[in-house]
Amino acid sequence: ETKDGMRGFAASVRFEGVRFKHIFLDEPLTGASGRVTVKGGAISFESISGEFSGGSVKEASGEIKDLSASQSYRIALNASFDAGKTHHLIKGFIERYNPKETPLVRFLNAVSISGEAGVILNISGRRGDEKKMAYKGDLRLKDAGFSYPPMEINVSSLNGRAAFDNDRLYLNGISAKDARSSFKVSGSISGYRTVEPFLNIAAEGAAAR
């Protein structure tokens, strides 16, 4: 169906085994399958899956509206990945979509991550306006490492689950090691993207030998 203007155009395409590269992503998605629909000045995608150098996308869906104006977007993602490589991809995506120096960008620049992880993520917002960006998700860690110098955190052998949203990080029985001990932590960190986060954490462990 075609009419005058972008909002009068409609098309839907099903694809399998293709290579997908977007200007806002540093790495291509290969062996991709799913469906993309353009209708009413918006583009939507559903049941997207594929592989990239740092892991695999099990399923992704979303929508980008106002293609001819300031774009709004929503994305749902279920993926497994190499944490370090994917941290680089996420940082690059956010820096390009929101090029201003923001607390989120500063946090991502300061963090160092390694190991294996799985993530379920929901994100929405408007391009160039971090204040309208909303996200929440669930992160599953396997033999991961994490360092964040502003809070003097440097741990390894991270295993467990964490949930997060714009303001708060929830730790659900995550086990880890640092230079002095092995331990297990539960609780939350509010304002984790700021210079003065609030920690509400319980920990138990043993000194390293």
Strand content: over 45%
Low-confidence stretches: none
What gyration radius follows from the Cα positions, in whole Å? 19 Å
Helix content: 10-25%
The general outline is globular
Averaged pLDDT: 82
By oligomeric state, this entry counts as single chain
**Secondary-structure content class:** mainly beta
The total of helices stands at: 2
Total strand count, please?
11
What distance lies between the first and last C-alpha atoms, to the nearest angstrom?
A: 70 Å
In what order do the strands lie side by side in the largest sheet? 1-2-3-4-5-6-7-8-9-10-11
Structure in words:
With about 210 residues, the chain is mainly beta. Helices cover about 10% and strands about 65% of the residues. It has two helices and eleven strands. The chain has an eleven-stranded antiparallel sheet. The longest helix has 15 residues, at about 85-95. It is globular and about 65 Å long. The mean pLDDT is about 80.
Chain-wise SSE layout:
Elements: E1 10-20, E2 29-39, E3 42-52, E4 55-65, E5 72-82, H1 83-97, H2 103-110, E6 112-126, E7 129-148, E8 153-165, E9 168-177, E10 181-190, E11 198-207
Antiparallel strand pairs: 1-2, 2-3, 3-4, 4-5, 5-6, 6-7, 7-8, 8-9, 9-10, 10-11
